[in-house]
Design brief:
Oligomer: single chain
CATH class of the largest domain: Alpha Beta
Number of domains: 2
Order of helices and strands: EHEHEHEHEHEHEHEHEHEHEHEH
Helix content: 25-40%
Distance between the termini: 22 Å
Shape: elongated
Structural class: alpha/beta
Number of strands: 12
Number of helices: 12
Strand content: 15-25%
Low-confidence stretches: none
Strand order of the largest sheet: 8-7-6-9-10-11-12
Mean pLDDT: 96
């Protein structure tokens, strides 16, 4: 089988070497399309691919149409909003992600952002400590649980909410369950967001939720840009000069926010959650192993779509 790695933003060399060893060791061939600059390059490359590994690259209906032999696509990372699941299902192409492989990298970034904002982005002004504060975690999956563990180690108390995890299970995992998202926001000095971008969550975090936060609170988003209602965020920051916002997915109105609110707002130059050597390697190798297991045994453990 031909396995194509199509990455506009390439994997690290060590990850590519590892993917190659796994794929070729299983008797398949590997093709690379790195740093491509046009959709046409991707469409041509997938034409004869049996499997596809991507990072943040968009696998659209057009890509699915062009990939006549495609049987499986794996997104190396947890988020999968760059995959058109309906189109892939229509072509009976299995879609997967690699949950957990980037989790520690994202969790470390969330904690780093929290401290960075507490210390006024490392300017000379007097900051504050996180010890003794409460952090609320919105979605208690792989990343959220790691954020909770790291926050607890810093002397913080942890509250969490997740619509897919019962309250008693959240308690067993070491956090205080919030009765609702509203309670989470109103109770915590920090809220760390880890929800996916879905029709239900897009734009769900806005003025009403943000202004429920206690005095001096900080909202941290290492999830997806789309879950924030940016107009509502701006209005909340205008009315509440004590609030702060940090993210690794710059809002569309970031320049305006930065001009208005200065160091109360921070966004990384690009999405940095998975930008570690370890996460890069882990996600790439996991994607290769999942493809090989699929071809060998029909394993669909991390399948995202149904058909």
């Amino acid at each position: 089988m031909k396995v194509l790695v199509a990455t506009e933003k390439p994997f690290a060399a060590a990850a590519v070497a590892g993917i190659k060893n796994i794929v070729e060791g299983a008797g398949h061939t590997l093709a690379l399309l790195e740093k491509y600059t046009s959709k046409e390059e991707l469409l041509a490359a997938v034409a004869d691919a049996d499997a596809l590994i991507v990072r943040s690259d968009k696998v659209t209906a057009e890509v699915a149409d062009a990939a006549r032999n495609l049987k499986i696509v794996v997104r190396a990372g947890a988020g999968f909003d760059n995959l058109d699941l309906d189109a892939l299902s229509a072509h009976r192409v299995v879609a997967m992600n690699t949950p957990g492989q980037n989790a520690n990298a994202v969790a470390e970034l969330a904690i780093a952002m929290m401290i960075f904002m507490c210390r006024n982005q490392f300017t000379p002004a007097t900051g504050s400590e996180v010890m003794g504060k409460k952090i609320g975690i919105q979605a208690f999956g792989n990343v959220g649980r790691l954020v909770g563990k790291k926050a607890e180690a810093l002397g913080m108390s942890v509250m969490a909410v997740d619509p897919f995890i019962p309250a008693e299970k959240i308690s067993e995992m070491g956090a205080t369950p919030a009765a609702s998202v509203e309670e989470l926001y109103s109770s915590c000095n920090f809220v760390s967001v880890h929800i996916p971008a879905t029709p239900e969550t897009i734009g769900s975090i806005g003025y009403d939720l943000i202004t429920k936060m206690p005095k001096g609170a900080t909202l941290i988003n290492t999830a997806r840009k789309e879950v924030i209602d940016e107009a509502g965020l701006e209005k909340a920051l205008e009315e509440r000069p004590d609030l702060k916002y940090a993210t690794d997915i710059a809002p569309s109105n970031y320049a305006a926010l930065r001009e208005k609110f200065g160091e109360r707002v921070f966004a990384t130059p690009k999405k940095m959650g998975a930008q570690t050597a370890e996460a890069n390697l882990n996600a790439g190798l996991a994607a290769a192993n999942q493809i090989c297991a699929f071809f060998k045994d029909g394993c669909t453990r991390f399948q995202l779509n149904k058909f």
